[in-house]
Every structure is written in C-alpha cells, then in structure tokens.
Amino acid sequence: MRNMKMKYVVISAVALLLLIAVALLQIFLYGNILPGPSEPERTINKPNAVSENPMKLGSGYYDTTWPSEHADQIRSHAVLSAGLPKDLGTSRLKLQVSSTELYMPTWGYTRGDNDIFVIGGSPQFMTTFTESIKEGEGLSKLKLLTYTAKDMWSSDVAYVAKINTETNTKSILELDKGSTVNYTGGLLMHANGYVYAVSQSVLYQIDPDQMVITKSVDLPKVGNSLTNYWTTYNGLQVLDNGELVLKGFHLINNANLDGYLLLIDPDTLQMDIKQKARVSSARLAIKDNDLYHVNAEEVLRFHITDQGFIRDDSYTARYRTQSDQSTQASSPMLLPGIDMLVFADNTAPGADTPMRLYTKSTKDGNGKLQSAHAFTTDKPSFNFFMVGGDTFVNNLVVYYDPLNNLVSANKIHDDGSISLLWEREGIKASASPAIAVESGQVYIDDYTNGKDHFVVLDLMSGEELGRVELPAILPTVGTIFVGENNDVFVLSSEAGQKTGYVSRITVRP
What we know:
Elements: H1 2-30, E1 42-44, E2 78-79, E3 94-102, E4 105-110, E5 115-120, H2 126-135, H3 141-152, E6 159-164, E7 170-174, E8 186-189, E9 195-199, E10 202-207, E11 212-218, E12 231-238, E13 244-250, E14 259-264, E15 271-277, E16 285-287, E17 290-294, E18 298-305, E19 308-311, E20 317-318, E21 333-335, E22 340-344, E23 356-361, E24 370-373, E25 388-390, E26 396-401, E27 406-412, E28 418-425, E29 434-436, E30 441-448, E31 451-458, E32 464-469, E33 480-482, E34 488-492, E35 500-508
Parallel strand pairs: 2-29
Antiparallel strand pairs: 1-15, 3-35, 4-5, 5-6, 6-7, 8-9, 9-10, 10-11, 12-13, 13-14, 14-15, 16-17, 17-18, 18-19, 18-20, 21-22, 22-23, 23-24, 25-26, 26-27, 27-28, 29-30, 30-31, 31-32, 33-34, 34-35
C-alpha cells in the first residue's frame, strides 16, 4: 500500500511539474497568462510634437539616394534617376563586383557620396528563412524549432557598419545595450545629420563621422517580465518635421497582444507620444502624416496628430483570419499617384496557400479590399521581404516567390484591380529587390548551382539584361539598394557562415 501511495505521489508531482512547465512556456512564448502591468492606452508628453517643426525641415530624411531600408516613407524600394546605366542591355557594358566581408549584413543605406551604412548581426529567424529558400520548401516543425532555438541562444551582437565604397574601409559600432530578442532592427539617415538605429528594444542616436553613440534610450517592452523578451522594434520612420516613428510588437504572439506606436523627439529621444496598438512585423508606410500598417489580420490607418495616433476605424479591413492557412502580411507600399496601398501576404513560414497581392484605396476610406494571385502558380509559398515597385510612373508591383522560383510584375490600376504584366520562371530570388525607374531596371538576385548571382531585369518586360556571380554560397536574407555613384549594392547575409558580404555592383566596358 505504501508503494502505491508513493507511486501516486510521484506521478502527481511529475504531472504538476509538467503543468507548471507548460504554463511557464505559455507565459514566456505567448504572454497569454499573467499579462503585463496596467498602463494608459495613450501617453502624451509633448502636446505639439506633430505640429511643431523647430528645424523647419521639408523632409525628415537625409538628402541621399537610400536613407531608409526601403528607400522612402512610402516604402517603394525604388529610385527615379539613380542606378546602373540605362543602356546596360544594349551595349557592351559588363557588370563587375567588388566585395567587403561583413558578418550577417541585413539592411543597407546610403549617406554621402562614398559612404554606405549597414545594420547586421541579428540572427533570429535568419537560418530558418535561409534554409527554407535553399531547400525550396517549408521546413518541418522540428527544424523550425531547432533553428529558432539556435538563433535565440546565439551570442551574436548587432552592429552598425560604415563602409567607404572607394577604399572598402569599414568602421563597426556594436549595438550592445539591449536584452530582448536579437531580431533585425533598422537604421535611418536623418536630416539633422545623425544616424538612428533601433535594435533589441533600444533606440540609438549615432554620430556618423565619429561612429560613436551619442544618446540611447530603452523602449517600452510588450507583456510581462517573462514574455517581454520577444519585444521587437524592427524599423524606423520619420515625419517631415523630424519626429521619429517607431513600432514595437511581440514577435511570437502579436495577433493577441498589444504593442506600441511611439513618436520620439530626435534630439532628446524623449517619447513624445506612447500609445498601445495591435501591431505586427510589417513595417510602417507614411504619407501626409497618415500611417499605414498591416497587422496579423487587418489593414490599418492611423492619423498622426498632436493628440496621438488616431485609428481610422472606417479604413480598417480584414485580409485574413488566424485560422486560415495563410500567414500574416509583409510591409505595405503606397502608390501616391493613384492613391493606393498594396501589400502581399505570407511573410512567415508555415503558409499553405499561394501568395496573394492586396490593394486598398487611400482616398476612399470605405473602399473595398481587392486581391489577386501574385503569380500564376497555385503552389504555397512565403516571402520574408515585401513588395517593391515603380511608384513614380507605371504603378507596378515587383515581387518574387523564393520557393517556386518565380519573379513577377503586376500592374495596379486606378480602381485597385491587379493584372499580371509579366512573370519569369527559374529565378530563385531571396534578397529585397530594388527598382531604378528611369533606366527601367529591376535589381534582384538568383541563387543557382550553389552560388548567388546579381541579376538585372527589364522593368516592363522581365527580360534579363545582365547578371554577375556574387561570392555568396547561400540565399540571402539581405537587401539590395541603389548607391550614389551609378552603383548598386547587395547584402549577402550567409546565415550560419563565419562571414557575409557587402557587394558593390558597377559596370565596365
């Protein structure tokens, strides 16, 4: 009898420990139990943060080709008049590559004639995306868990690098003040001369000449003290008056936990406005102090005012549910010429649906949400990166499918309808693309035969105009951006390798 009681006690104790472990895991990963401390929905510390413009700025961005990770406020990934020579496809000009080694570079920016800036060293989910693209299929749950744990326990430190494109010399500044998940953040080249960086829930003000941190501030964490490890701030925006706009969210459970929208003074780093909002990984697009965002299920618009981020409920539209087989959307892009917002779904692994494009008018607040297949295939896929396009002239959206090896351009019409202009098969792109509108060029990559390649396509037809081999041996989770000197840059992240690459593409006779 005593043995039976002892056995019962042991079984009960083990069951209790398992329940406690499951509860702790739920708290750590999702924050569903024991939510964070109670706080106001909105806090305003500066009553005229939006209407005031002490520096009389016409733009908050530094005057350069590529001051943010997606080029501009509307997140076009495009420039009007820079890029490689227009006659690349019809002349004897050849592409050439010069590369600088840099560990896991992700986002790139221009500033000044010969200086570019890069943020990198953030491994979370990089291995997952890289291996999925390389294998051409979604990963098993075991592999997803393994790669996530590997990235989470990495000792990597995020950094900002400044590279002189003439000499290939580099200066590296570590961003080591944060303690939340090391998921890729972002930089912003500001009109006031400073560079701003966000990484691991810390905002940094950086002197770009001396490459030193001049100020920093901890940003609000999402959820309780256990789950707030997953707090993520993954990019910066700026109003025309210079105020910084940031978004913080829970990386794992943003569909069910409120994050934050912040307006921050660029000089003091004071949080002028702090407001709770249901936000997700998609980065922010802004036009005329209207902020557009796509969270885990809905398309949102906020009016940025001195009274806070005022949600325009008439604009809200649902594009998916948590129970369907798609995954949440990537960052939206604005087409100002036709007053249209466009984005794609399936930014995360696990999607069992083909990728779709969505449009919604920004002029008609109650306009319907429209959608169409981004490609002709019905096979499921996902894409870490977001759409890019010709937002200047033709209102085209360029996108790629890294699992099914497709690249397409779709025309967005005045009424929001979507029609396929061209599609190319056999290109395994993985980098965030760039577009040079006047030269009619799309800059993309193609991973084939164990090597990555830089490829130039014709914007209107998809015809290949040129390609050159890169030093990378893996697909990249890095960006392509247009430089100041008839050049283009490719960041090869090389997740899991000892080094990545920053490659400068130019032409030679």
